[in-house]
Task: inverse folding
């Protein structure tokens, strides 16, 4: 796709124009007398006239017509024709042509003027190999390809070829690899959610145990300031439990749940749509390719037929008339046209597939970027919650520290003695 | 124990001295003629003479002697005697006397001169009540007692009386209450250790769960920078587990174990020693008290006997001679001496018990202060460990944060594409 289509079309038109002018001039030069001039009715309209001159069958007419054309005219005709061909051929050869016009040109030029051997083999050498119906340039051939998005390691640059399945003969489209990556990403987020869920369960268990222990009556009989500190210490376990419960709740709502619901079921459906769309285009491409192959075979058959018939006529092997030759020639031309049409359709379809590949792989690339960033953001939420939790946890110890600082044995003794004293009056000596 | 013993002794001596002088003078006044003078041999020595005058038996002698003493002399004697008693009695009444001399004084003064009714009941009113063999001042009576250790709510000031068991008749020594407090303290520390042990179990469970989860293969297939961050996140759970395990180990070695081993078995033995020691002293006191009671009863018996015998002699009921009276009198006096001795012993024992109570209750007080401070210190260790743990826990999140910050979708794409690309060469148009 080095040249825009419009340029190519232009060139082809120019070729034909020159060629027609040349033939016309040649014709006029050679058939000045009315006798030998080709009459329009004979050439079935202008279009056919033009087509008739695509291949130098006129030459044949010249040399096998019953009325001999003077050698001088023949020579002039040939001269004019060749000149026009050379001139118009110029238009057909773009600076960076893949070589087919070249090939065509060389094919034509190398044909000995006296030979009517047409070196058209049944397997017309297509200049480029197809892999799974996709046309790639030959290694070393063609212009150097620049990455569509250099330095970006973009999906649209690296997944053109199908991946061979190492074990079997089947192969996987490059696009399929990209799609699988996205599906795997979905699986990853599901597993991450599961992991977080497990963490939540662990936290809830821990909180439950701490809460239960905080209700323990152990050493509840400790009184005074020490008793207060101890009571607060036990209570702090409940506070810790609350912190961990809060942590687990937030983990659930801010990390686990989002991980589970990010890109819900619609995501897989969307991916499937992409998958089917691209697969359909490949299928279309395959069928177009089949069409090309079919047309190519048909053309080869037609050419063979014409060759055979022409040979037969020359050696007067059969009673084939010129009419038969013309018919075979026409069919051959038609087959050639068909082939061109099929190749065009194929190229159109490949272009369509190409565009879709680029667009969709860019979409997938964006999806992957989004996925990574989204997960990064939510894992950061996890670490934030962890930080918070540890800080809140630290604060549960503060009141315990405070009360421990206030522990006062003297005060405790006062409290206890006031509560438990038996009598303040001291004994005295007995007296009689 | 408001007055030093020496002062009391002085007073008693003064009393006796005056009393003796008085009696002597009286005697001289009344028995000028040799006939009626008490002869020394009759009174069996000076001491007995003194004792003889402790109670006004001389009066008896005066009034029942066969030789009548002129009324005038009797009158003078009585006057002199009373004066001397009043004078000497002054010495017996300290500014804050408990009242026994007073009582004694009033007893003597209230006796009608003509009455020989001796208001000596068999239960000689001891001026102070005993509670469980311990002698306390009557409410309102006696000098005001100051606390031994004012403003300190010291054990030695508040546990003198036995505590009545609300249900039964038994009572518990104040010291016993103090002892129970110490035993309860030991129970408290044991229960605290148990609580810490439960916490340790919870922490170990938590650590085990975190560690197990950290090994989970969930989302292990995530690659690139995101995969690294995720791997570190999982690993951080193991780091957290380590932190909690370290916490539980330190809880065990720095809090639980000390709580279990603080004041080992020896402590209870020491307490038992105190218990037995004090209990023994109380038993001694009780037996001394029993001795006093016994001596008192014996004295009362003797007095009764003497009274009876004297009455009998007066009404010439029996053939009891003066010798019998004297014998009875002597036994009475001896019983009085015994009583005095028993009272002394009782008071000594009570003093001993008193001293031991003060000393030991101070010991227990110190033990309690030590216990409270020790527990305070170790509970502070608990809170310190909690602080540490939360800090270490926070640090386990740092590397995760770091790697999350490094998450780079572009880099991850590069890595993945390099690994998974299928082909870079882009398709081209088919040409024939």
Result:
């Amino acid at each position: 796709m080095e040249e825009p289509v419009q340029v190519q079309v232009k060139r082809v038109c120019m070729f034909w124009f020159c060629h027609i002018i040349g033939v016309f001039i040649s014709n006029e030069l050679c058939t000045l007398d009315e006798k030998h001039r080709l009459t329009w009715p004979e050439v079935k309209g202008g279009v056919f006239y033009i087509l008739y001159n695509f291949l130098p069958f006129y030459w044949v007419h010249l040399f096998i017509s019953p009325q001999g054309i003077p050698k001088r005219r023949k020579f002039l005709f040939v001269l004019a024709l060749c000149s026009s061909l050379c001139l118009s051929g110029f238009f057909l050869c773009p600076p960076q042509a893949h070589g087919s016009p070249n090939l065509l040109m060389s094919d034509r030029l190398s044909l000995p003027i006296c030979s009517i051997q047409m070196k058209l083999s049944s397997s017309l050498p297509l200049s480029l190999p197809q892999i799974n119906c996709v046309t790639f340039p030959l290694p070393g051939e063609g212009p150097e390809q620049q990455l569509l998005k250099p330095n970006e390691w973009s999906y649209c640059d690296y997944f053109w070829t199908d991946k061979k399945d190492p074990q079997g003969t089947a192969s996987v489209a490059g696009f399929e690899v990209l799609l699988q990556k996205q599906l795997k990403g979905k699986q990853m987020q599901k597993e991450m959610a599961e992991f977080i869920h497990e963490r939540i369960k662990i936290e809830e268990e821990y909180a439950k145990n701490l809460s239960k222990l905080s209700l323990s009556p152990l050493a509840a009989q400790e009184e005074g300031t020490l008793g207060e500190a101890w009571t607060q210490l036990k209570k702090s376990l409940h506070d810790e439990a609350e912190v961990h419960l809060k942590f687990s709740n937030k983990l659930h709502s801010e990390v686990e749940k989002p991980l589970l619901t990010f890109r819900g079921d619609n995501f897989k459906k969307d991916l499937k749509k992409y998958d089917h769309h691209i697969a359909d285009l490949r299928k279309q491409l395959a069928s177009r390719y089949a069409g090309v192959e079919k047309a190519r075979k048909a053309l080869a058959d037609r050419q063979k037929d014409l060759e055979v018939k022409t040979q037969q006529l020359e050696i007067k092997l059969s009673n084939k008339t010129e009419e038969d030759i013309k018919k075979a020639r026409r069919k051959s031309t038609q087959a050639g046209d068909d082939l061109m049409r099929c190749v065009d359709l194929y190229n159109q379809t490949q272009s369509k597939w190409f565009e879709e590949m680029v667009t969709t792989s860019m979409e997938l690339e964006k999806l992957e970027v989004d996925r990574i960033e989204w997960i990064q953001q939510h894992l950061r939420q996890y670490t934030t919650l962890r930080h918070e939790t540890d800080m809140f946890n630290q604060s549960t110890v503060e009141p315990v520290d405070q009360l421990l600082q206030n522990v006062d044995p003297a005060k405790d003794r006062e409290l206890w003695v006031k509560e438990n004293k038996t009598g303040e009056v001291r004994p005295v000596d007995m007296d009689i």
